[in-house]
Amino acid sequence: MKDGTKLIKIAAAWLLMLMLAIAASIVTISIVNSREFGPEKTVAHYLDALKDGDGAKALGLLQAKVPSADAAALDGEALAKSQAGLKSVSIGEAVPGPDNQKIVTVNYTLGNSPFRTDFTLTQGPKHWLFFDSWTMLPGTLPTIDVSVVNANQASINGAAANMPDGKNSFAVFYPGSYELEYRSALFAAAPVTRKVSGPGQEIPAVGLSTGPTTDLLAQVDGTIRKYLDACAKQAVLMPTGCPMTAATNNRVVSAVEWSILEYPAITISPYGGQWIMAPLNVKAQVEYTEQDLFSGLVAPAKVADDFAFAAKLSISGTTVTVTPQLSD
Question: pLDDT per residue over 90-147, tens digit each?
Fold first, then answer.
């Protein structure tokens, strides 16, 4: 009898331990399921993929349709750069949505401005019989429309992209910040940034206003100055092939000396798909000694005046040709 009681106690102890083990397993599975397999974790994996520049993984998690647009910013360094400006990222707890869906809100700042992005997820099949899976509802990636003046290339987050007829559209992930820019040795457009927080956002189109670089302006300015300095070396009242002219009814009895008082300001602008220079104006002074034909009086003459002319700009690659043009 005593042996039977002892066996019952042992069995009861083992049963208790088994029940405790089962309970512990259930609690452990519940905790692991919530922390590692909840909808928040799917969103976290997506944000990590963006940060790593892994566009394939991000697209697989987001399940988004890629529109008919340039994919230059959907992978690699350009994608990783889109996340560099995200600060104070906070993934909120999932809240119930329609049709047994879950909504996860991500709060963050971009350029010191607060933003939020809502992700809607639906439950998928169980993993290993116990663990949940969550997938994002399919959507379409947003796009940024870009145009550039007098150029057929641009860059998005540093990634070069072709711009047929000066226009293109770029597909982008969200959330993220995208910098559009054009720069070459001779022309450049100031960068324009667009912050993208979600698929339904209306993103203003980007117009890159291309203009001459300081190097190009300096190069053209140097050519024009050299041309005018050569004109000033001609010791005649009407230098050949030059905008400066002078005239007198008296006899010139000394050497003629020209000097440039003010060189032209250089302005280069786009027009009709080409680059043109604005009309130029040089202020020059001529000095000489003249003798009056009637009185015979000899006196110095010094005359300063403004002279207008134009110049044609021709560009082939990085070669710049400036051709002064004089009106008849």
Answer: 999 999 999 889 999 999 999 889 999 999 999 976 654 555 789 999 999 999 999 9
Note the pLDDT tens digit of each residue in 46-87.
999 999 999 999 999 999 999 999 999 999 999 999 999 999
Distance CA 21, CA 23 (A): 5
Q: Please report, for residues 39, 94, 95, 163, the alpha-carbon distance to residue 122 in angstroms, rounded to integers and kept in the order given.
A: 8, 11, 12, 39
- Domain extents for the chain? 1-31, 37-210, 214-325
**Buried/exposed 24-60: b ≥16 CB within 10 Å, e otherwise:** eeeeeeeeebeeebbbbbbbeebbebbbebbbebbbe
Give the pLDDT score at 115.
Answer: 97
Q: Which three-class secondary structure string do you get for 75-121?
A: CHHHHHHCCCCEEEEEECCCEECHHHCEEEEEEEEECCEEEEEEEEE
φ and ψ at 148, to 5 degrees? -140, 140
Q: What are phi and psi of 67, to 5 degrees?
A: -70, 170
Token reading at 232:
């000033």
Query: What ranges make up the beta strands (E) of 130-277?
Result: 134-136, 139-140, 143-148, 153-156, 159-162, 167-171, 176-183, 187-196, 206-208, 210-212, 251-252, 257-262, 268-271, 274-277
**Helix H or strand E segment including 16:** helix 2-36
- What is residue 70's three-state secondary structure? strand
